[in-house]
Amino acid sequence: MPSGSGRVATAWAGQLAADSVERNRQLVDRLRAEIPSFGDAMVTVDQLRSWVQATSRAFVAWLLGDESVEGNEDELTLFGRRSAGAGIPLADVHTAMAMAFEDLTRRLPEFARESGFDAEAMVEIAELLWTGFRRVSAATDAGYREVMTTQTIERAEQAAFYLRTLLAGREFDHMQVWEALGYLGLDPVGRFRVVIAGPAHDDGVPLPGVRARLTNEGVSSVWISDLDGQTGLIGIASELTFRRLTSVLRQVARSLVGISSEVGAPEISQGWRLARVALQAATPEMAVRTFGDDALAAATVASPEVMDLISDEVLQGLRNASARTREELLTTFLTWLDSHGSMAAAGRRLDRHPNTVRYRLRKLEMLTGRSLTDPRETSELALAAVNFMHRERMAAYLREGDGERSG
Which segments of 106-118 does DSSP mark as H helices, in order? Predict the structure, then answer.
């Protein structure tokens, strides 16, 4: 009895080559009949036939000892590209490859028995055929994934273009806004918030994994990244959606974050400006800041150059005081404001006696020449103090970031 996988392989390769024309025609008909996407002319009959022929030639070459599929690889890869470009699901492509493998091997046991080959040779040839199947699959998959990768990049670029256009407030008619938001997967008639995250201290991603985390919470979003950080447009379906958004941001943020107030589709560019103001008002103590959380803080950063001049003018009496004294007096004053003017409550928050709070406030009045019993002068002091303390905190925050990067 003849034995050895070499003779089986050679004999079976000859059989496949002899009946390839009719067998390939039947396989093309089966693929079109049993896989809907192939029967809907998403790829042409000629393209499908070329792939079937290349698959058959690759198996024959493998059986004859040519361990590469290079002679047919271009055709196999091209079919993968065409399938992806036509929108055929990868699962259907894999089904076609399995059907081709089945077609090439289903008569092998009968052929071996008729030819008198033993079981050991059959096992060896089956292993050889399976290895060939993996190589053919890899070549087809490579073409498919190449196109899918290109399409993913192109979709990301298109999404970034739409988002940047909406944020910049460029001329978009009503239908174009709808088209852009629909492409981004957001409800065109919904409500939105814009989120801006500044650069992370370690030069990493400011909000790592934010889109996936929000998606897990049922929150729709689209993001772009650049050297200045990350910017996102978030669909806000309800107050619960907003709470989930802020919760996720606080968990993942590695930088300061600003959130706009809620806006409709026509006001998205305004939302971007409000998020910028909120970001500028954020501090290490309140790293995620929503526009409207603190009107004083927002006012001080809306026009920072002007506010710095006003702050320096109002607080010029503190110039000769030590840095510790300035911080002590202004922190006490802002805590007193947050305590609704209560000395006792401010003292508890500062862990100081109410008389200490009273003494510091009087000293602030004396140095600045402004009375805390005058509402207008108190408002001026509040704006100046908030601006000064924010400026000091941000300077310290940036110094800390420089230290981390240089370290």
Answer: 108-115
Identify the helix (H) or strand (E) that includes residue 139: helix 119-168
Distance CA 365, CA 360 (A): 9
Task: Give the pLDDT of residue 266.
Answer: 86
Q: How far apart are CA 97 and CA 143, in angstroms?
A: 14
* Tokens encoding 222: 């689209």
Angle between helices 70-85 and 90-105 (to 10 degrees): 140
Residue showing tokens 């991603």: 205
Query: Total structural domains in the chain?
Result: 3
SS3 40: coil
pLDDT tens, position by position, 165-196 = 888 877 666 668 888 898 899 998 899 999 99
Does residue 166 belong to any structural domain of this protein?
Answer: no
Taking the C-alpha atoms of residue 48 and residue 267, their distance in angstroms, rounded to an integer, is 50
CATH code of residue 189: 3.30.70.100
Residue 355 placed within a domain: yes
CA distances from 96 to 28, 73, 169, 268, 400 (A): 10, 17, 48, 47, 58
Confidence (pTM): 0.62
pLDDT score recorded for residue 404:
53
Which tokens belong to 73?
Answer: 């690889």
* Residue 16 shares a structural domain with residue 108: yes
* Spatial contact of 211 and 221, defined as CB atoms under 8 Å apart: yes
In this structure, are strands 191-197 and 288-290 parallel, antiparallel, or unpaired?
unpaired
Quick one: pLDDT at residue 218?
93
